[in-house]
Amino acid sequence: MSRKRRIFDISMPTDLPDVAPSDAPADPPAPSPETFPTGKETRTARRGPMATAISETAGAARERQQVEAQIRAENDALAHEHVRLKKLGLVLETVPLDAVETYKLTRDRAPGFDPELEELKQSIQAIGLSNPIRVEPRADGKYELIQGFRRLSAYRTLLEETGDDTWARIPAAITQQGDSLESLYRRMVDENLVRKDISFAEMAKLAVDYAADPDTAESDPDKAVAVLFKSAGYQKRSYIRGFIKVIARLGGVLVYPQEIPRSLGLALAQRLEEDAGLSDRVKLELEGWDNRSITDELGVLRKAAGLVQQEVESAGEAAPVAPAMPKTPVAGKAKTSFQLERREGRAKCTAAAGRLEIRLSRDFSTIDRRKLEQAVRLLLDNLD
To answer: In what residue span(s) does the ParB-like N-terminal domain sit (predicted)?
Structure first.
């Protein structure tokens, strides 16, 4: 059984324009990935759900990779900047108090009672630490103090007095290792020179200790002054060298060297140079004199320097013959001393001929004068 062919009538247009061979159309463009030929026409391909999901996932992955690469680049830049600032000591961290050691540098502060420490503690409690300490990391994980001995002392005292863990850590600028010992000393010295609250005796003591340090290159205290105090003027360095004579000969018996005025220190240095036995006589005068006051010690030094006689002469009075420094301890220096526990801390009391002294970590100038006067009057009345 044969099949019949279907015959279609096709009408061809008769008004087609003449086309030159050179104007013949170019080959049709290749179908795009989104289309496919059907034999009669080219139709747009329909994408299935799976193909759409794969395409969208691939696009999201590319975007995520771009974002991650950008974040990594930013993090690398921040890390390099952090390292750079840390090397400059401009990165602050809070470090535990028990991780800070003070062995590397000899402090330029005289040990003992610091009357300004109470004010510093009150300031820190009120507004916080405005100037962080500076430390250098050690191989054992601890830190060596470079600057800020009083600030560190204030934090340690606050922690001891209050027991509050708020004071167990202190803000610190971390200085990377590499600075020479001379440079570290210079930083410490220059900081105190800027504040102008360091005495000539303390600066002289630092020069003596620096010269005695086996790790420093200079062993002469006078030459150490030029190394440590380059920022100071010539006259000031000359004063420090004068005080070195006092510290070298009397430093072991002085309790309040930081209280010695410049004029007294320079006059005493000159007398010590002129009289070889003067230092021994001053030591005999001061040794064994426990709980002496600042006035007591300065009085002995003024007498040794001959300033007492000079003051009398300048006042126009008949100058008595200045007594020679006794070769044996002077009698009549019996004193009574005791301590009392108070809420402010431990009160140290000293009684001697013509003097009653109470030392306590409290600013008595803030007490109303009438109240203070009444308290002192009651104290004296109860002693009768």
So the answer is: 93-193
What would the pLDDT profile of 185-221 be if each residue is shown by its tens digit?
Answer: 666 666 655 455 678 888 888 888 888 888 788 888 8
Q: Give, as one character, the DSSP assignment of residue 30.
A: P
| Residues β-bridged to residue 135 | 145, 174
Q: Half-sphere exposure of residue 222, counting CA atoms within 13 Å on the CB side?
A: 5
Q: Note the maximum CA span of the chain.
A: 165
**Is-above-0.70 flag for pTM?**
no
Give CA–CA dist 106/189, Å, rounded. Answer: 11
CB atoms within 10 A of CB 364: 9
Tens digit of each residue's pLDDT (9 = 90 or more) over 84-117: 666 665 667 889 999 998 876 655 455 555 666 7
DSSP string, 174-209: EPPTT--HHHHHHHHHHHHHHHT---HHHHHHHHHH
217, 44, 182, 27: which is closest to 105 by C-alpha?
Answer: 182
Domains of the chain as residue ranges with CATH: 66-179 (3.90.1530.10), 181-328 (no CATH), 336-382 (no CATH)
Which residue type, as a one-letter code, is found at position 40?
Answer: K
Count of beta carbons in the 10 Å neighbourhood of residue 23:
8
DSSP state of 331: S
Residue 35, CB-side half-sphere exposure with 13 Å CA sphere: 11
Pull the structure tokens for residue 56: 């969208």
